[in-house]
Amino acid sequence: MLEVQDLHVYYGEIHALKGVSFRVGQGEIVTLLGNNGAGKTTTLKTLSGLLAPRRGDVRLEGASLLGIAAHDIVLRGITHVPEGRRIFNRLTVFENLEMGAYTRSDRAIAEDIERVFAIFPRLKERRVQVAGTLSGGEQQMLAIGRALMARPRLLLLDEPSMGLAPVLVEQIFDTVQTINRQGVTILLVEQNAAMALSIAGRAYVLETGMVALQGPAGELAGNPEVRRAYLGEGTETAP
């Protein structure tokens, strides 16, 4: 579905992505892991058209996305839930969801809002509440719900568990799996490597703007280097 080929992205003279390549197949959950500054958020911003690569290509179902404006990438089926949620604080929950459908003119918008409410019943209870007064977990639900209003085929999630209590983290990851089962392919950037690897089919590890490791999520979860660097486990010497 998505092919990223030899991606090089710069911030001024800073070489942020240095030949990143990976793929996301139809219906998959794929996760990008890495420490702060590894290039995970830069990758998602490039995929969604917010950054332009200096070299390389991004292809969605065989068609290049280079030079395509961000709003047109949404029309092609990719939506992005950014790090920090970036909801419209002064609008209500309902108005935020309407904003997620700004590229649409069909008659199914109200139906899709109800679908979001079915996924996130808490949002339905707060539909007229100003979004800036929601809890952190509720704001994350709203950010994901807003992205779903564009009817994406590929959903980019950047740190959905950041700043949330453990019980809410589990809820968010359960919801990610529910959305995937409903037919949405997911590319997940997540600091909580254990949770990300538990729901993903495949994973890529970024280090200083390059893909250092890749493979089935289960295999990487058992990799000693990954366990030490991202799962908080030391290596033990066999007796």
What does this structure look like?
The chain is of the alpha/beta class and 239 residues long. It is built from ten helices and ten strands. The strands form two sheets. A six-stranded mixed β-sheet has the order 6-7-8-3-9-10, with helices on both faces. The chain has a four-stranded antiparallel β-sheet with strand order 2-1-4-5, with helices on one face.
For this entry, give a set of tags:
Rossmann fold; 10 strands; 6-stranded mixed β-sheet; 239 residues; 4-stranded antiparallel β-sheet; disordered C terminus; 36% helix; 2 domains
List the helices and strands and how they pair.
Blueprint: E1 2-11, E2 14-24, E3 29-33, H1 40-47, E4 55-60, E5 63-64, H2 70-75, E6 78-81, H3 93-100, H4 109-119, H5 121-125, H6 136-148, E7 154-158, H7 166-181, E8 185-189, H8 193-199, E9 202-207, E10 210-216, H9 217-221, H10 224-230
Parallel strand pairs: 3-8, 3-9, 6-7, 7-8
Antiparallel strand pairs: 1-2, 1-4, 4-5, 9-10
Helix pairs in contact: 3-6
